Amino acid sequence: MKIIILGTAYPYRGGLAAFNERLATEYQKQGNDVEMYTFTLQYPSFLFPGKTQYSPDPAPENLTIYRKVNSCNPFNWLKVGKEIAKKNADVVIFAYWMSFMAPCMGTIARRIKKNGHTKVIALVHNMIPHEPNILDKFLPPYFVKSMDGFMALSESVVKDIEKFDKRNCPKRFSPHPIYDHYGELLPREKALQLLNLDPQNRYALFFGFIRAYKGLDLLLEAFADERLQQSNVKLLVAGEFYGDPEPYLQKIKDLKIEDSVILHNDYIPDHEVNRFFSVADIVAQPYKTATQSGVTQIAFHFEKPMLVTNVGGLPEIVPDGKIGYVVEPDPKPIADALCRFFTENKQEEFAQNVREEKKKYAWSTFTEVMSNLISEA
After folding, report:
1. Is omega for the bond preceding 11 within 30 degrees of 0, making it cis?
2. Beta bridge partners of 105
3. Distant-in-sequence, close-in-space partners of 159: CB < 8 Å, separation ≥ 6
4. Count of CB atoms within 10 A of residue 355's CB?
């Protein structure tokens, strides 16, 4: 097939760009002709709470990425739609994640479909954002009405799509595949040295952009638990603050857990990700809301046990008591699970189970489900 993927990609950074690029690579491996369209302007700076939207890493090799889409310019949408329509691709996959993109993507899709050949498929990471606003009621229907079919990464997102889709278009669910492009697991001693960490300690890792819905505040409160305070377990926080860091820093001070928390609060470039996962005994995701999470799939790649909260699609991916723990988003059960993990030395047992469980999340499985959807659309 000739496939075009439209969404965030290099030079933009983050998990969604990584997902789209890895999907493009998988389709190329399977013999398809793949191009990517990404943004000249992704969104205005006032909508972006981080330090920069751009990746410090080198451009991905062997991918054709066109920077053509201006998310704020309707004339650009028509121009890009016309350009893509002329390419007569078999399918254009729109990687959708927020309501702000609905007018842009919906207009481009409508223009593409005028060629009478190309199918347009929505790859929906979030239909309703983790931090919703008034736009989430009014903008998504315009995007949804333009699509021929929908691919979601969790059952909860399928249900969210159904709230907007009145035409009963075909929908498929396939779990988030494994992020396997971050290199190999390092020897623990080498990773500890690179991060200047004490080998006598054990580490729970909180990884990724720090946003309110991700529940770092709950994890900090859990670490104030007396049992953890008397242990050699440390919390390693690796990721950039998306918003004001002061409430978190003040909470650390108020809880008197400065000695238990190690902060690496810059964007973690791809080539350094394996350092953090190589020292982690367990990966903690105390999210307050969720659909699915790329962090879970990085943990699968590095074969690390996980602690997740009982929200969104996370319990679908982490079988409780087998590869980690599923707990309520509250400090007490989070602390209980961490204490149980370390006192009962569950690391090797869970890691062995992760090795088996991760086989479910191959990219080839994901593209097979997507192919079935495209055929039906």
Report:
1. yes
2. none
3. none
4. 11
Which runs of consecutive H residues, i.e. helices, occur in the chain? 15-29, 74-87, 102-112, 135-138, 140-144, 155-164, 188-195, 216-223, 226-229, 246-254, 273-279, 294-301, 314-317, 331-343, 347-357, 363-376
State the pLDDT at residue 47: 63
Interval 261-276: pLDDT, tens:
999 998 898 899 999 9
Among candidate residues 342, 362, 338, 322, the one with its CA nearest the CA of residue 177 = 362
Q: How many residues would you count in the chain?
A: 377
Per-residue DSSP letters for 331-349? HHHHHHHHHHHHHTT-HHH
Q: CA 174: distance to chain centroid?
A: 14
Residue 59 pLDDT > 80: yes
Tell whether the model's pLDDT for residue 46 goes beyond 80: no
* Sheet bearing 324-327, strands edge to edge: 261-264, 233-238, 202-207, 282-285, 306-309, 324-327
Q: Which of 296, 348, 311 is nearest to 176 (CA)?
A: 296
Adjacent-strand bridge partners of 264: 238
Res 136: pLDDT: 85
Q: What is the pLDDT of residue 345?
A: 94
This prediction's pTM = 0.80
